[in-house]
Each structure stands twice: as C-alpha cells, then as structure tokens.
Amino acid sequence: xxxxxxxxxxxxxxxxxxxxxxxxxxxxxxxxxxxxxxxxxxxxxxxxxxxxxxxxxxxxxxxxxxxxxxxxxxxxxxxxxxxxxxxxxxxxxxxxxxxxxxxxxxxxxxxxxxxxxxxxxxxxxxxxxxxxxxxxxxxxxxxxxxxxxxxxxxxxxxxxxxxxxxxxxxxxxxxxxxxxxxxxxxxxxxxxxxxxxxxxxxxxxxxxxxxxxxxxxxxxxxxxxxxxxxxxxxxxxxxxxxxxxxxxxxxxxxxxxxxxxxxxxxxxxxxxxxxxxxxxxxxxxxxxxxxxxxxxxxxxxxxxxxxxxxxxxxxxxxxxxxxxxxxxxxxxxxxxxxxxxxxxxxxxxxxxxxxxxxxxxxxxxxxxxxxxxxxxxxxxxxxxxxxxxxxxxxxxxxxxxxxxxxxxxxxxxxxxxxxxxxxxxxxxxxxxxxxxxxxxxxxxxxxxxxxxxxxxxxxxxxxxxxxxxxxxxxxxxxxxxxxxxxxxxxxxxxxxxxxxxxxxxxxxxxxxxxxxxxxxxxxxxxxxxxxxxxxxxxxxxxxxxxxxxxxxxxxxxxxxxxxxxxxxxxxxxxxxxxxxxxxxxxxxxxxxxxxxxxxxxxxxxxxxxxxxxxxxxxxxxxxxxxxxxxxxxxxxxxxxxxxxxxxxxxxxxxxxxxxxxxxxxxxxxxxxxxxxxxxxxxxxxxxxxxxxxxxxxxxxxxxxxxxxxxxxxxxxxxxxxxxxxxxxxxxxxxxxxxxxxxxxxxxxxxxxxxxxxxxxxxxxxxxxxxxxxxxxxxxxxxxxxxxxxxxxxxxxxxxxxxxxxxxxxxxx
Length: 812
Hints:
By secondary structure, the chain is α/β, with parallel strands linked by helices. The chain contains 31 helices and 18 strands. β1 (35-47), α3 (73-85) and β2 (90-95) form a beta-alpha-beta unit. It starts with a helix and ends with a helix.
C-alpha cells in the first residue's frame, strides 16, 4: 500500500468527532447490543521490580533493604482467597518485566523460592491460585518467549501484554521508553505473534498521551488488527489514557483530554471492527462513563471489590453497583464476564488447556459470560431474585415479543435474542410470557397424579448426560443394575391406581435383551390388572429399537403398542434437536430426524406425545432456538404435542460433567427463560408449558409458573432418573403439596389426566387420602436374558440385526 493510499484511507478519521462517535457506537451495537461487560477480579502484584525504566511508571520500584522482592505463596493465596470470598472470578497477576536480568536481589529471592526466573515463579503461583481458590489466572508478565507463553497457558485462562505504541521514536533518547529494552515495538509484537500461534486468548492495547502522534496510534491499532486477523487471539484491546504521576519524568506533562480519548476509542472501534472487545479503564476517567460508552466501548475491564489498581493507585475503582447504574443510564446492561471472553469460552477446547477449559465451562453460562448465581437444577439453594437496574426495554426485544404474542413464527436469531435477555429485558420477557399464559389458559394450574416406573436401568447406550443407566453386572461402578419382574410393574401400577393415579409413565434403559414384544407385553400386563389406567410410555428411542427388533416399520409397531394399551408417548430422548450437539452428548442415539419421525408417526396413529428439551450442558442458545423451531414446525404439521416440558440438566453425577465437558446446568435466569421463551416461541400451537418441580424445586417451579408455565407436571410417586443425577427435590410431590404451591401464587389448582381433561371425582378423592407407598423391589438382572420374558427366536434374530446395524452406525 502506497503512502498516498494509506493517507487517503485515514481521511475518515479526520471527520468531526460527533460523526466518528456515532459511527463507532452503531458498529459496537451491531455486535454487542446492550451489554457492557467487566471482569470481577483481584490484582496480585507478584513483584514490583522491573528491568525497564518507563518514564511515566510508578508501579516499578527498586530493591530496598528489608523489603521482600516477591509476594510469598501465603501472601498470594491470602489475596486470592479474599477475592474468591468477594465473588471474583479472575486473579490478575501484575508484575515487572524480568527483574532478575537487572537485579541481584531478584535472582537471590527467586533462588530462595526455588525458581530461576520470575515467569517460572509466576507459573507456580498461577497454579497455586487455580488449585486452592478456583480463580482464573490472567498473567501480564511482559515480553515472553514461546516456551514461557506455552508454560503459562497450562495454568492461566488468558494472558496479555500492552503494546502501548509501535513508535520507534519513543525508544530513542528523550522518549518515554528510552532505556526500556522490553518496550521495543518489534519485541512486544513478537510476543503477540507467538501468543497467536499458541492459541492463547490475549489482551493488548495502546497507551495514549506519551508523546505519540495520532497517526502512530492508528499504526498500532492496525498492527493489532492484522495480528488478530491472522490468529484470532486478541480478545480485548485497551485504550488507556496517560495519567501524569509525581516522582516520574513526565510528572508535569499534559494528559490527553477527554475528546482525545474519545477520538481514540472511536477510531479503535472503526479499525478493529464490531466484534472486538474494546475497553477503557473507568477509574482513569471518572464522571465520563456516558461519553466513553457513546464512543464505542463494550467493556470496562477488570474491576476489583478487594484490591486497588496497583498501576494507578491514585485512581480508585468505581463500585460495581455504581458502574451498573451508570451503564444503565447510558442504556446498557452490565454483565460479569470471565477473564476469557465468551467467544473463547464457546471454543474452549481450541483456546484453553484441558484443565482450564473444564474450569471455565463450569463457571460460564450458555452465552459464555460468568454465571450470575450459584443455583443449579436439583440443588436446594433458594432461587435468586432478578436484579433489575435498567429503566427501559430494548426496542428489538419488545418487537420480537409483539410478533410472538401475535402468533408469528419467530426467526432463530429472534429466539436467541430473547434467551439473552437480562435485567429489565428479562423482566419484560417473563412478564410478557406470563400475560400470554393468562390469556391462553387463565389462572388454572394443572397437574396429574401419576407414577413413574423405570423398568430397567440396564442400557446398551452410553449417553454422556445420563447417570441413571447401568451396566449389566453388579461390578458396574455407577451402581447396581436391575431389571423389574413383570409382577413388580403390575404391582406398582395397581398401587398407583389405589392412590388416585390416572397415569403410569414407563421408561427405562435399552436393555440388550428387550425387543418390541417386551414393550407390548408391558402394556398388556398393566391393562390386564388396571384397565382404566392411562399408559404414558416409551420414548422415541424405545420405539425405534422395538420396531427394529421386530423388523417392523415405526407406524406398524406403534399400532401394535396402541392395540396393547399404549395411550401416549413421552417426548423424552429429544435432549437437544441439534445433531452437532447430539454428536457430543449421545452419539449412538437416534438423530434429530429420527426423533421427529417417531413423533410424526405417533401423531398420525392417533397417539399424542409430549415434547421436551434437556438444556444447560454443552449447547448454546442457538441450539435452543433450533430445537424450539423444530417442535413448532412439527406441531404445525400434526398438532399432536400436548405440552412442552423444559428439563434442565442436573449435573452432579452426570458423566459429561464429571469428565469436564459440560456446564453445571443452566443458570436460574436461563432456566426461567426457557419456560418464557418456550411460551412465546411455540404460541399458539403448543398451549401447555410444564415446569419440573423435580429439577427446578418447588420455589423455582413457582417462579416458572409466574413466567409463562401453566402446568406443574406429575406427582411421580417414584422419581429415579433425576435422583440418580443428583437432584435433592424428592421422589414424590403429592396433591396437597401441589395445591398448596399453586395457591401460594394465587392460582387455582386442578387435577388433570394425561390429555388435559378434568379427572373424575373418585380419582381426586383417592389421591388425597393415599396410603404410604410400599417399598419398591428392584429385582437384579437374570443371567441369560431379561426378566420381562424371552423373545421368540425370530425376534431374537431381529434384535441381533438391530444391534449390528446400530454398531455400524456408531462406527461411522
């Protein structure tokens, strides 16, 4: 590029400041919307020695007799533990550049600590903080070699180095970087390049007002842009304004004024593009928050409720609550992020070391921000109250809600936007869903008296989310396998009827000896002893397997089950109807198309089904949108779904959580939004939105009933699957508890049957005077076959063929 072309392209930056700011703000909003992020962190000044002598710095000191050169491990841990107690997620290690290359005192101190270099000691302290506190280390040690960056990558979530400037003039005599070998632009740029090659989420930035020209600022920003274009690793760019400090060579120098800072921020946004995270320290420009936001910022950087800004100790941090209010005044919503930004969280396996990736996933929500609560599905923590600071509602959100309530099919990106609602937008979405619920179903909350019967926990599948399925032998480490006698199934069905149940819900593992005849026999046996009991049984996986073992098309097998007494099908085995996610969590299971085909065939056969989603693990809101639209489109075709049931992932004992590949379920905000957005996105085709007391807990379920849900599900009597995963919410929620909960939110309870019809009075009467349950019998597996009956030879051959076909599919 010639100098003339280069200068012509830079003419845009000579536009009036108001025009630049307006363009930058619009560009920022196109990618970041209303969100202003920050990181809640502690600052750990590992050492204040530095071999450089920058003329503006008060952080760097010289060795002093009797004063420790480095923080000890105990001192490091004390700071980190204080940060963890204050809700921080990041430990920012600040330190000077390789002081051991200048000071004997540094070499001696390192030797006493068992290290040769500062960066070696830094890596050890990062590992210590990570192990003992769970805070995510972010390291700013200055210039680094490839090996040093790679070593720190194993114990940090992110790293950084301020480029400051690419001006060689500033390194010459009279310049602020004269005598500072680590401030040579080429040296710092090489560190940035190496970090990109090593896939390290990296922070950099420029320091303005230290003698550089505006053209030199543009040079630095363009170099950063080009490095990011090559490697994709620059996660944030800081625009930091020089502050004159006493006892420095620049003590009497003029600081950049606010307009100069705003020009630089806007220019950075225009050069770096809409997606880049651009920040300016708020403590260096107090009172200018609105203007900084207007110029194109989307991040406030690290804010500590515990430690000062050790680089600028004269400038106190704003209180986080005050920062939230000021952001809200500017129309933005403050959101806490991790030290690593959402983009890199979503692709953690690429950008983070394995142990760090596990920790980051467990600390993040579906969007990749820091979790905003410690609630999880299945635990007994009280649900958090939503924080509402902003006054207005995003006009885009309001428009999407309006289209949804009118019955319009939303686009996928509309649904994603609803799931991202926070603060006032969250309240608006949940209230709109509740108003729609009232319009559709009034103030009646329904529930069904039913019993879960999980006939076997032996399963040939290995879904990574399932803590229920077991191997075939007692040596299985995940618990004892069982295979119920048919007499136990019928006994439980009779007992359920006597206790007022109108439904038995039957599901289980895919036992290697079960065939389609097994499922048919279960239905026949129940109908023989309790002819009026509604059988709600067999997910799409059991149907697919059963049909294959008999060599029948799906529709013919469903006809056989219906003739045997099957009334409806549960919509489980759906998990997430996005095959990219299914390939991770249940690779050997039926795919999205097969699940939808079973539902379609059931509806065509006159069998209604429920619909579910299992969310909060490895997927994002994009997958939620795909799932909801798949349900809506099938419902528009068949009309066969009775309800939508969000099932938040219970993580405690789930294999994929224990393996480190999943989040600990949705946040409470996300869980409530699944009910609200489900109500809006499925309107008017699926009128019933059910909330799971097993997973949400009674208090959480009550919130969902005020956010779009109208059904409380079943009393269950025996809940096994969520209990195996770790839920603490019990195995039965009897009618008096159901009705007390419903009345506590000023709604009217009503018992229903599976098809949402009122139950006869004798059923209700039996349910409210139910006797205690008899102990269940979990019969162990029988050697040489299933207890539920041996299949005829032809069916055994069909089953063998099914397993062979499935093995081939898995191999592919």
